[in-house]
Amino acid sequence: MDEKTALKALLMPGKNITYTLPVSKGDTVLVISPHPDDETLGCGGAIVKMLSSSVDVAVVILTGENSGGRIKNISRIRKEEFMKARAVLGYSTFEFLDYPDGQLESYQEKLNEQIHRLLIKQAPKLVLTPYLLDYPIDHQIANIALAQALKKAMQTDIIIGMYEIWTPQTNPNCYLNITGEYPKKRMAMRCYQSQENYYKLIDKAESLSTFRAKLSMRQKVEHMECFKLLESNEYIKMVEVWKKIQS
Questions:
Q1: Contact call for residues 186 and 202 (beta carbons, < 8 A)
Q2: What does the DSSP 8-state code read for residue 162?
């Protein structure tokens, strides 16, 4: 894949628009969440929907230690909030890697290895990760680590789905109706009270999901989550080209 084609994979919708994720009963999905709350904000509705279809969901939280010191004991508080949100969404398999918030880039090689280990351990059919162009640096580093881990694992049958949180994706190719799942997602978002107090997460996430639903022009759809689905090789090349452009 040349650079032009790789960037097209990131920015263009492609030929096939889908309204379902490429998983079925018995499959495993690995959700990469750089921070506690990304998994709920970006794909909480998808998690609920997949669990209801007997799809196994495993979540890995990359950061746990907080380096900002904005709130006393914030690391412990955010883990407790995560556990409450996890119980609402309904999955049981999760892991904390406990890197410092905002400093994933300093641990790139080790993170690559840990993501690789999880790919081997979980053998997922689908991996959900933040949008590559989302502005938090930890979200970008998570994509670099995933691409490196996929390259090492040589598991070409894995599908990657990038979810959106702070930065709306350019031309996603998967639009998931989460209207029925949204009440649970909203309950889970409310568990992150420390972040809600500071960032007003719920209003932002709700605005995005209703915006996506309105753009879909589909009747009786009030909330949607959007994803960019890519085959592993396509995703790896896309990340490599993006890194080259950034350097």
A1: yes
A2: E
Q: How many CB atoms sit inside 10 A of residue 217's CB?
A: 7
Partners of 56 in beta bridges:
28
- What is the tens place of the pLDDT at every residue in 203-223? 999 999 999 999 988 889 999
3-state helix, strand, coil in the chain (%, to 5): 50, 20, 30
Element (H, E) at 203: helix 201-216
Separation between Cα atoms, residue 180 and residue 33, nearest integer Å: 23
In tens, the pLDDT along 8-23 reads: 666 666 668 999 999 9
Summarize pLDDT for 49-100 with one digit per residue, the tens. Answer: 999 999 999 999 999 877 545 677 888 999 999 999 999 999 999 999 999 9
Structure tokens at 28: 């495993």
| Angle, CA 158 vertex, CA 153 and CA 160 arms, to 5° | 110
Pair 126, 46: CB distance under 8 Å: no
CA distance 170 to 7: 11
* 156: confidence class by pLDDT, cuts 50, 70, 90: confident
What gap in Å lies between CA 57 and CA 72, rounded to an integer? 32
What is the Cα gyration radius of the chain? 17
DSSP annotation string for 8-50? HHHHS--S--BSS-S--TT-EEEEEESSTTHHHHHHHHHHHHH
Q: Are 139 and 172 in contact (CB under 8 A)?
A: no
